[in-house]
Amino acid sequence: MAKTNQYCVAENWGKGFIEHGESSKIAFSGLPGNVWQVPAHNKDANLWINKVLGVPKTKDEAQAIVDVEITAEQTAWDALSDEEKANNSRPADITLEE
Amino acid sequence: MATYKGIQGFGIQNVAGDPTFNEGQVWYNSSTSSFKLNKQITTGAWATGGNLNNSAMRLGSAGTQTAALAFAGQEPGPINHTETYNGTSWSDPGANYPASIDDLTGSGSQTSALGYGGASGATATNSWNGSSWTGAPALNVGHEQFAGAGPSNTAALAFGGNSGGYQNACEQYNGSWTNQPTMNTARFGLGGAGTSTLAIAAGGGYQIGSGPGDKGMQTELYNGSWTTVGNLVTPMLSWSIAGTTTSCVGMSGYTVDVNPGILTTQTQSWNGSAWTISPATNSVARKYTAGCGTSAAALLIGGETPGATNATEEFSAPAFTAVTLTTT
Amino acid sequence: MSTYKEINGQKVQYLASDPPNSHAGQVWYNSTSGSLKFNAGAAGSVWVTGGNLNIGRGDGGGVGTATDALSFQGQQPASPSYANATESYNGTSWTTQPTTNTRVFQLGQSGTSTSALGFGGYVPGSRTTATESYNGSSWTTQPTMTTARYGLGGVGASNTEALGFGGYTTSFSANATESYNGSWTNSPNMVKGGSGIMGTGTVTATLSAGGSTYPDVGSVTASESYNGSWTSLNTMPTPRIRGGMTGTTTAAVIFGGSSNVNNVYDGTNWTTSATLNTGHPESQGRAGSSNTNALIFGGASGIDTTESLRSTGGIRELTVS
């Protein structure tokens, strides 16, 4: 079955990283670890990856990067005081889709 | 009645660029060798803005998409940074918020703003004049994880929160705070926008750990007292909205449409009588954000993604945009 | 069973030149160079961790050698994300130097630690033509490039000469080339080009490799050489963008960026070589004087670590400590 999503790694440099015209054509999802999820088999998405000099990753590679970041956040949450925990929800695992 | 443009139409001009034309007008762009059409786009779109110098969640903000102010918050642990945005990048104006505090609210403009309330039932109010913060009369009751609205450092409205339980308390500032009629639904983590006399409150109120229900859906309008109006399409918590009682945009947040709730990149739009889901989605799903601006030019600042983020995103709803015509 | 050489040892010969067929462990005196030399075994290379940057940055400018390097500008996590920091490296630690005039990242560079040039790159919201030179004590604005681009490659021996090539100008164009000798002039386009491209060599004998071009996003293995015009070379086994490369058109090493698996070039073919100890994604800045003298530093999200390439084995000299 054809992939729906593709992934790349690129650090968000801020202004100009994602422009209005790109956002209106592409569904972006920024994930921990500088991982970005965009539509697969999509010319506009590919053009954007080229623009930001993104490094394409397989879903499994991207998942490994995200898992490292989420685990670190969960570890940090586990170390919070009870009062702080009551005020913050524990970061949930993120499962990437193909 | 038929219009001139409906009868006569517009001539197709040959120009070296994309000037501002009427809706529906076609021209030839000689620089790109293409025919262009000025097409109506009302759904809006997101773009990344300059990253904050300091990542922050549960922070306060004020201003517009091109002249914004962000201050205090958590990262984790309370912080007191103040930053100003010029539409491209954030700068340090050289003046910290008087306290390191999170879950506060801000309103006003980049050069005339108020910061008020915060964690642990804080009532402190601080006034910003464009270069420094000074203390101002305190809120009557503490508010945390609440909403606010207002045009300057002399006029504001504070409403809702979670200080000693869900709050429906509302206070108005015009040099000092005076109690106002309470909201119809007590809630925290709500979004708020408008002025000190005309404000909108949307979402909020969800107790983490409980299942989804009708919480997080309510919308109320204030014009001296509160009136409940149409529900959100998607229940939202810990999010930011920007605009007025007749045109507002709700940005990202923590949706409790599913159990457990999740962060979303959804955008909801209010047209004065009903909410709709915008086709536009932002790129970094987050809660505990700050937001400011208008429904046509809004700014979403910081938040938790998980972990505090320095990401800033700009929502713009241009009425028209030039598109290239191609042959099929 | 013990060997003769293990029991009796091997005499240290007095020779006018290095013996052609020495074996590992053999020691001799070279009377021409007046030095005691030995065969250290099969030639190889390994990356060794060095001192950390004071400010972790990625995709900044990098010039010099592995023991005398300069790092400038780049992208950092905050305060603000476009850096103007300058730091010098002595092989052990980094020292802060005067800041640049502009804040930019993904720029091109040429020169040495005391005579450097930074050009092009990305400033908030747009690519730039900005050019600055460093004389060892301060940065000075210079004439701007012809074509604004970021993720370009750059080579040159000093702050008065440079070749800037590749880099992102539009979606489908990343092959522009220009030369600097006090001001910029256009030069022949690259065959393919790329953004996040790497380069090394001189302004008259340049090697370029990798980079991203549409639609071969992130999977570019192309390599080219320049001697007044560009020519395609054999491809690399490992695709790479936003890394570093040092050496010449006949002996180069390319490293870091999108892959920790490095490649070496022998003038004809690219092959796989020693890997980095840790990741340095988005580390376009680099220093090094040859294919065995290289330095990589920084990377995405504020990475501040440094690694240098150390050759092992081969014929070496025994020195007095």
Structural class of chain C: mainly beta
Average pLDDT for all residues of chain C: 92
- Coarse structural class of chain B: mainly beta
Q: Outline the low-pLDDT stretches of chain B.
A: 208-213
Net shape of chain B: globular
**Cross-sheet strand order for the largest sheet of chain B:** 1-2-3-31
The CATH class label of the largest domain in chain B is Mainly Beta
Counting copies of identical and different chains, the oligomeric state is heterotrimer
Q: What is the radius of gyration of chain C?
A: 21 Å
Stated plainly, the CATH topology of the largest domain in chain B is called: Neuraminidase
Silhouette of chain C? globular
What is the spatial order of strands in the main beta sheet of chain C? 1-2-3-30
The DSSP helix count of chain C reads: 1
Look at the structure and give the CATH class of the largest domain in chain C.
Mainly Beta
> Would you count the extended β strands of chain B for me?
31
CATH T-level fold name of the largest domain in chain C = Neuraminidase
Label this structure with key terms.
heterotrimer, A: 98 residues, alpha+beta, four-stranded antiparallel sheet, 40% helix, elongated, C: 321 residues, mainly beta, Neuraminidase, four-stranded mixed sheet, 30 strands, 2% helix
How would you describe what is shown here?
The complex is a heterotrimer of chains A (98), B (328) and C (321). Chain A has 98 residues and is of the alpha+beta class. Chain A has helices at 20-23, 43-51, 59-78, 82-87; strands at 5-9, 29-31, 35-39, 55-57. Chain A has one domain (5-87). Chain A has a four-stranded antiparallel beta sheet with strand order 2-3-1-4, with helices on one face. The model of chain A has no long low-confidence stretch (mean pLDDT 92). In chain B, strands 1-2-3-31 form a four-stranded mixed beta sheet, with no helix packed on it. The longest helix of chain B is centred in the first third of the chain and has 4 residues, at 4-7. Chain C has two domains: 4-39, no CATH class; 44-312, 6 Propeller (Neuraminidase), CATH 2.120.10.80. Chain C has one helix at residues 4-8; strands spanning 13-15, 27-30, 35-39, 44-49, 61-65, 68-75, 82-89, 94-97, 108-112, 115-119, 122-123, 126-127, 131-134, 139-142, 153-158, 161-165, 177-180, 184-187, 198-201, 206-209, 223-226, 230-232, 244-247, 252-255, 261-265, 270-275, 286-290, 293-297, 306-312, 315-318. In chain C, strands 1-2-3-30 form a four-stranded mixed beta sheet, with no helix packed on it. Chain C has a four-stranded antiparallel beta sheet with strand order 4-29-28-27, with no helix packed on it. In chain C, strands 5-6-7-8 form a four-stranded antiparallel beta sheet, with no helix packed on it. Chain C is globular and about 70 Å long. The A-B interface holds A 12-24, 27-30, 32, 36, 69-70, 73, 76-77, 80, 84, 87-89, 91-92 and B 41, 43, 45-51, 76, 88-89, 119, 208, 260-262, 265, 280-285, 304-307, 311-312, 314, 316, 318.
